[in-house]
Give the backbone structure.
Amino acid sequence: MGIVGYFLPMLICAAIPVQSLSRNAETALCQTQEMQGLCALSGKWRNQLQSEITITCKKGTIQGLYDSTVGNGAYDLVGKYLQVNETDYIVGWSVAYKNQHRDARSTASWTGVFYAAEDIIKTQWIRAAFKNPEDYWSTFTTNQDTFSRVQSHPCLHNNRN
């Protein structure tokens, strides 16, 4: 199975609102091989500026969407995670700010820690925007975000990992 075939079911399921699935459809979807073994980060998260990430993670890889309150629509998100103990994770993901509505000629990467006891992801991020060489000094912006869980992935209730 190619990489698209592997991640497509996870991306589709990450984008399906839990309310739109009947209990039988949710159970059937969660019993597929693609949905087995999801990590505890899977679901929808919101930061202090109301930007949202919807992610699915499995076998060390994060896939999903980033919907910025200052951007136009959602952007693909890809990353990695490491489980550091029974409940907590080190995480990192990147977004290229180009979609069907906008090309901001920039990327951003977040790195941080998921604290399960607080159900938050605390991150530091850096954004690089294309500038001409004489303006290179203004290429980078850095800050921090704290993401709080809005909704767990529906399959986490059916198969905990």
